[in-house]
Write the structure tokens for this entry.
Amino acid sequence: MADEEESLEGEDIQGLVIRGYRMPQAAYVFYRFHGGDLARSWLGDMVDPVTTAAEWDEKPAWCANVGLTYAGLEALGLPAPFLAGFPEDFRQGMAARAASHLGDVGADLPEHWEASPPFASRGVHAVLLVSARTEEELDERVAAFEQAGVACGLERVGYQHAAALGADHPSDREHFGFRDGISQPTMRGSGLEDKAHADRQAVAPGEFVLGYPDELGNRPMPSPEPLGRNGTYGVYRKLQQHVTAFRDYVQSRDDGDLLAAKLMGRWPSGAPVALAKDGDDPALAADPHRNNRFRYTEDPLGFACPRGAHVRRTQPRDDTASSRRRLLLRRGLTYGEELPAGAPDDGVERGLVGLFLNASIERQFEFVQRKWLNWGQFDGLANDPDPITGPGGGDFTWQRRTGPRRYQGLPRFVTARGGEYFFLPSITAMRFLSDPSSFS
């Protein structure tokens, strides 16, 4: 547990950093600024509506959060010495680093991204994320924020709606049919180190929130302190899921259901194959004290959970300082209509809108993407990129005591459609950025 003085300052931190709202509706509204004075006025007006991590007595009907790109900070008129204090990964942005630092190839590269929002040309300055309990509430709040943005000269350059699958009973499943978002780390000093979260990895708060000690005791953040402290970096990445390609691939094999679970590392219910080796176990999945109580060090050869399975490589669970420094806070929802089981491809795009929070984009998100997901030699494998989110064309090795089974030339199941790096400022930093007198 962190010392009392290191407890996170929830009233100054944007709410989604510490708590996942778990609201079934969300909208990402992307803006371009036209004039620093007007943009600063808009940011100042957003100070009160932005949801913080302070405790609430009753869950609100909606929440709002704001992120700024490096180009957006430039457009706000932030002086060059302050801009230089941001790390190179954030300054360059995702498009410039897709091939070199993310390991993206082929259809994942920026020249193939969707044109709106204009991420590939760095044409986005800010994102407004609105989360809501109902679609009606979401539409109402977005319309109100849009009106305020227009008054401040903001140009909307992109819009992304996301919603939990299941209109009548929203779920936490993704389009391939698997329960998502089960395993998340917690931050020491966040107040979440209770029995309900006892099986989550607790890490130093500085791995996610700037200005606090990280696992090495360092306190990285941009300067000056009012700008950097209590902020974080958010990685927005839109991922299209090729649902019929995934279904056709696994269903064309005699061991299709088991193969799908081995590829993912969990059964559709969320039960880990590390514990439920031969079949799904919904009771295990529903027990938060059991479905995460395992380590892959207990299965080093991958006989229970293949070494290249998706969830194993996104979180190796060895609880070393090195692995704790690679963890991500994952916020996101599905987009697009659910494709009914057995239905042919309907041409509708669907997938996942991911928002990944970290204190170091290069050390956390980019490393995980490049070395754990896109790299074919992960954990001593030969040509096995991630079987779910990897670029396709590689292999998948299912380790067995009787000898490995290899699946060669996997199709591409997921394609990146766009993304960017955002700075999520604290409330103090929003005030700082909205007042040009702070810059002198």
Q: What stands out?
A: The radius of gyration is 21 Å. Confidence is low (pLDDT under 50) at residues 1-5. Residues 4-238+421-439 form one domain. DSSP finds 15 helices and twelve strands in the chain.
